[in-house]
Amino acid sequence: MSHCFPTASRQTEQLGTMVLLCCQRPKSPIDSIQWSTPNPFCSSVVPHRVERNLTCIPGEVHRTTGCYRTLLREVGSKRSFPQPAPHPRDILRSRRRAPFCAFPAGNAFLSTKEFTMSRTMQDFTDLLLQQGVISLDQLSEAEEVAKNTGADIGDVLIKMEYASPEEVGMALAKFHKIPFVDLRSERISETVIELVPESVARENTVLPFKEEDGALTILIADPFDLETIEKLRFILNRKIETALAPKEAINGAINQYYGQVEGESADSMLQEFTDTAIDFTETESDSGGGEETVDDNSAPVIRLVNLMIAEAVQLRASDIHVEPFEDRVRIRYRIDGVCVEREAAPRRMLSAIIARIKILSKIDISEKRRPTDGRIKITVGDKQLDLRVSIIPTNHGQSCVMRLLDKDNIKVGTRQLGLSERDFRNFNSLIRRPNGIVLVTGPTGSGKTTTLYASLNALNRPDRKIITAEDPVEYYLPGINQVEVKHNIGLDFARIIRAMLRQAPNIILVGEMRDHETASMGIQASLTGHLVFSTLHTNDAPSSISRMVDIGVPSYMVASSVIAVLAQRLVRTICPRCKVRYQPPQSVIEDSEIPPEMLAQAEFSKGKGCTYCGRTGYRGRIGIYELMLINNKLRELMFKGTTTKTIREEAIKNGMSTLYADGMLKVIRGITTFDEVYRVAKKTEQEALALSHIAKELSSL
């Protein structure tokens, strides 16, 4: 049975095109459609004729009709179409809340490529679900991130660590019915490598793999990129067959077989300054005396600063430290929370490096006596980053720290924070309450901003108004009003909160409750029906209650407004590429106080060290948490002004998992190591009780 109906309206007739849609189920969604040349009034190709007398499946009618109903709504047609029963496979897709295809604003029709890609990517994600690589919830979350960022769904799944590059690659290869190659276990002949020029391999991210029967097999990362495959056939002038490998693996193999990219590294640049005579100018030294310095406008200095930033991005550093000493300039990167020292620069380069950074961040280069701050916006490869620059004078000259703010770091959901299953359920529930204060505590660099932004991302909907007061605004969030503290004009946290309340917000974020006035205004906002997020600098969750009292907030107001406190730290995770199982010494296990029922499920692991993790055995970080939910018993203790120790004991009795206990849970699951947990969390008297709660939870799963 054929379902054909006209979809023409006055507007489409003006475009000179009459569209007939026939719903069918051919081999591909466009097999039966002949495509006209692009209309001069529309940038997309328009289908103008469809084969008739085709078998139709109701699910396909439903999907395609829905797309064209959207199309006709854009061009103003009032024609209505029947709603057939949904196909069973569409039920799965509707649960994911993702449309079959989306029409870009201002464009009435999808191009052939857009139409095909939309359908194909949905079928590919269905395959990932069927193979059990990802869950439906994970896919929904990844699709939301992909929609917001415009990134490929496969790249998002890998970035969110829901799937490995190999798992996505194997599924993609199976979907396209081409071989998958694991380059870690393969060796490619030099004669085959010579068949493809290095420039072609690097430009197109491809790698020659083998030659058989006159056909050259090329490894590609994106099977959807048919244009590149055709270009290779033309350039190489031979029969090409394709196989698939992860993009990262192909790039690594290109460097392995063709050699590293011919260019400069920061270390080689520093060596150049040490060994080569440089033309320099006489300027006043940062420390007050006269000394030889390199001109800040010289090309080598510009290249060095650029390379330093690019190398930090490549190494996933969060900070770049440029520190002056009497005989050298020390350069360090903070990677996964740990500082790593690079090649030291000659002392005479300090003025030029600092001046170049000041120029980039629009800081007055003549100001050398006061602390100064600035910001740099850069693009490295396909990454857009903000660098927050802080410069302070020291006894040996100006010291600079550049914090790299990667926007990808905030595009995470609460699921990726690393909360245990119980804490995740509780946290997700409490951030959806209509009012109250949620405090996130921990030292600088413990991931508080990421947790708060993940919470706001989860709550950010068109029916809610969210306002933040930050010092400074580190990341810009779409759909959220963000206000930056400016002390030079008297715009502090308390003043911003007072103005916020006249803006009728649903949710408020206050960067830090650092004084009595700010805390009082935050509490007032929560008591008048607003949900308030804020941070404190305390060692654990119970200490935040006494901290609020210490800054002058009455205990009864704290008890009536605070609904939860989340303390957190960051630990390094074991490198997935060199991870091995091992049995720790018995003395270490006994000292950890891990219950026997938890030890029975333990998968102790460590990293041997490889090039992927820089020989450290660690790559990436994850949070360990202490979530204290304020119940009636705790509220009563807070009213009485009870000590922090008593509040902590009561919270643990009520099931609170401590930082140490949550860290040990991640140790027995092979996520991190004992050393990492001991580095950021201390064991207290109540840890045995907290660990026993976790053991009971694990045994019930």
Automatic annotation (TrEMBL):
Cite the InterPro entries for this sequence: AAA+_ATPase, P-loop_NTPase, T2SS/T4SS_dom, T2SS_E_N_sf, T2SS_GspE_N
Instruction: Specify the superkingdom.
Output: Bacteria
- Which residue numbers delimit the AAA+ ATPase domain? 434-555
Protease keyword on record = no
| Entry GO CC | plasma membrane
Keywords carried by this UniProt record: ATP-binding, Nucleotide-binding
Q: Which Gene3D superfamilies match?
A: 3.30.450.90, P-loop containing nucleotide triphosphate hydrolases, Type II secretion system, protein E, N-terminal domain
- Molecular function via GO: ATP binding; ATP hydrolysis activity
Q: Known Pfam families for this protein? A: MshEN, T2SSE
Q: Where is the signal peptide?
A: none
Q: Which family does it belong to?
A: Belongs to the GSP E family.
What PANTHER family is this protein classified in? PROTEIN TRANSPORT PROTEIN HOFB HOMOLOG, TYPE II SECRETION SYSTEM PROTEIN GSPE-RELATED
Q: What is this protein called?
A: Type IV fimbrial assembly protein PilB
Q: Which gene encodes it?
A: pilB
